[in-house]
Design a protein that fits this description.
The chain has helices at residues 3-17, 32-40, 44-57, 66-75. The protein has 78 residues and is an all-alpha fold. The chain has one domain (3-15, 25-75). The mean pLDDT is 92.
Amino acid sequence: MTNIEKYLDKIVSYMVRHSSGGFPFDSSVMSFNDYCINTFGLTDDEVDYVYYRYKTLMGWVPDDGASQYYLNKILKDY
């Protein structure tokens, strides 16, 4: 596991721990993308990875490999 993957997974874990069935922020005020960029300083590709991991861990969608696709896209830039 790479350092960037560890960091992004820590963000996902934080978000899951601070959620109560929904997002860990007021989604009527800001988007998931804005929350991740403003709070954690993520790039758009990193936000995509976090979003798909988060949805999977929350049980909202099955793991279809989308998060791995975005992780591979991120890692090719490093």
